[in-house]
Design a protein that fits this description.
Layout lengths: L1 H12 L2 E4 L5 E7 L3 E12 L2 E7 L12 E3 L3 E9 L5 H7 L4 E6 L2 E10 L3 E5 L7 E5 L3 E5 L12 E8 L3 E12 L1 E11 L4 E12 L5 E10 L28 E4 L2 E5 L4 E3 L3 E14 L1 E7 H4 L4 E7 L13 E7 L5 E7 L7 E8 L3 E14 L2 E12 L5 E8 L3 E7 L4 E4 L2 E8 L4 E11 L1
Parallel strand pairs: 1-4, 2-16, 14-23, 21-28
Antiparallel strand pairs: 2-3, 3-13, 4-12, 5-13, 6-12, 7-8, 7-11, 8-9, 9-10, 14-15, 15-20, 16-18, 16-19, 17-18, 21-22, 22-25, 23-24, 26-27, 27-32, 28-31, 29-32, 30-31
């Protein structure tokens, strides 16, 4: 106990030095899980020996357990994050049981604050216990408090007690995790017909962290990280980490995650949403076709485009999940939008453009037989009517159950998994195509 008292006295005697953020070199890893790692280098004026420093210009939603500060010849003795910000509610809370005064109309009212809520102040006259008066907060012009209570700060601050081997200006590195910074991928596909399209990617950056970041190097990390809840001051906690170095390629593996460094530095203003280029528009080869799956859409037919994420398509790097909008390239008409699940390098991506208007499907069971104690036989017919002026390709997906065997079929099929088969057929312009098959089920 004696040691703690002595340390408290020593800290009081050390004058605090304001290390406001100047000449900041900022790097931000923004994770898709809604949190970020901020690492910045600041040129600061240090004093030789033991001193107390105040660090400002940090995020409000910081995880205190993740704070790391270092520099050559600098020994950190103590870190104290101050996040109890000044607000009307916090000030009133600090003055419960104390005297306040406020103006109501032309009258000045004094008394001891007993309690408050969103609508009322409960005030006692001097000499409490005694009469209690209730005042509506909306009727009060202003409330006067005699002083700013200890412990409240007007902006986020880190108190640092550190020992420096010499005086002078030198860089220190500050690193921490924070919530309030997020990103989402936005894609645009301009479909040119047949097998050609223009594909581009953007990223939407959202800063709700409570601070602006000027000229920051931004790295986007795709993938979900498991994070432990924080013990206080913020809602999240992670072990102290070192900022990852920015890579040369668009997306790099980071353990089981991928990251993308924006090609230019970005200034992220507080409470600002902005867009930055993920990759420029590139020509890709696409495959346009239709898909019908009775278990999903009943009679509706989906219009789809797909492409392979490979270098010869102008891509070949992991594409993070996001939202995609599809347009007609010749008219710039909007064709649809939806969720893009992302695509690893070398994988196929399938995009839903909408429900086909002039391609219709009809499915029915034309025969059913019980051919054994635990065995049935069903015959199905799927009719595809193409009202377009061009031939179409359509994939018909059928879900089966139990132990099954196709004993008759009008067209070849591919077995996708243990209960799904797909017929990949062509339907001429203005024509109808019937697909039939008979399946025997066993249990």
């Amino acid at each position: 106990m004696y040691g703690k008292v002595t340390l408290a006295i020593a800290l009081v005697l050390i004058s605090a030095i304001d290390l406001s953020a100047q000449n900041r070199d900022i790097k931000i890893n923004i994770y898709s899980g809604g949190f970020s790692q901020v690492t910045e280098t600041r040129d600061v004026d240090l004093k030789k020996g033991l001193s107390a420093y105040e660090l400002y210009d940090i995020a409000e939603k910081i995880d205190p357990g993740s704070i790391s500060i270092g520099g050559d010849g600098l020994e950190i003795r103590n870190l104290d994050y101050r996040y109890d910000f000044v607000s009307a509610e916090r000030l009133l809370y600090k003055f419960i049981g104390k005297e306040i005064q406020f103006q109501k109309g032309d009258s000045l009212v004094k008394g001891i604050l007993l309690r408050y809520d969103d609508k009322y102040l409960f005030l006692a006259a001097q000499g409490w216990p005694g009469p209690v008066s209730i005042y509506e907060r909306d009727e009060l012009k202003h409330i006067d408090l005699p002083t700013l209570p200890e412990g409240l700060v007007s902006r986020p601050m880190i108190n640092v007690v550190a020992s420096s081997d010499k005086s002078g200006t030198r860089p220190i590195t500050l690193s921490y995790l924070t919530e309030g910074l997020g990103w989402n991928a936005e894609y645009r596909l301009a479909y040119g017909g047949k097998d050609e399209a223009k594909f581009s990617g953007w990223v939407k950056l959202d800063n709700q962290s409570g601070i602006s970041f000027p000229d920051a190097s931004v790295i986007l990390v795709a993938g979900q990280l498991d994070r432990e809840k924080s013990s206080g001051g913020s809602s999240t906690k992670s072990e102290e980490g070192v900022a990852q170095e920015a890579g040369k390629s668009p997306l790099e593996p980071l353990l089981d995650y991928h990251r993308y460094e924006l090609p230019f530095k970005s200034s992220l203003g507080e409470k600002e949403t902005r867009q930055a280029a993920l990759f420029q528009a590139t020509s890709i080869k696409v495959d346009h076709y239709y898909k019908y799956q009775w278990s999903e859409t009943k009679s509706d037919v989906k219009s789809l485009v797909s492409f392979k994420n490979e270098p010869k398509s102008g891509l070949g790097f992991p594409l993070p999940p996001g939202r995609i909008s599809i347009y007609d390239r010749s008219t710039d008409a909007f064709l649809g939008s939806g969720t893009f699940d992302g695509a690893a390098a070398g994988e196929k991506a399938e995009l839903f453009m909408g429900t086909a208007f002039d391609v219709k499907a009809e499915r029915k069971r034309t025969d059913h037989k019980k051919i054994g104690r635990n065995k049935n036989s069903d015959t199905f017919e799927i009719k595809i009517r193409n009202h377009k002026v061009d031939e179409i390709r359509i994939v018909v997906s059928e879900e089966l159950y139990g132990y099954w065997d196709i004993i008759e079929k009008s067209d070849d099929f591919a077995k996708k998994d243990f209960q799904t088969i797909e017929f990949d057929v062509r339907v001429p312009a203005g024509a109808e195509k019937a697909i039939t098959y008979t399946v025997e089920y066993g249990y």
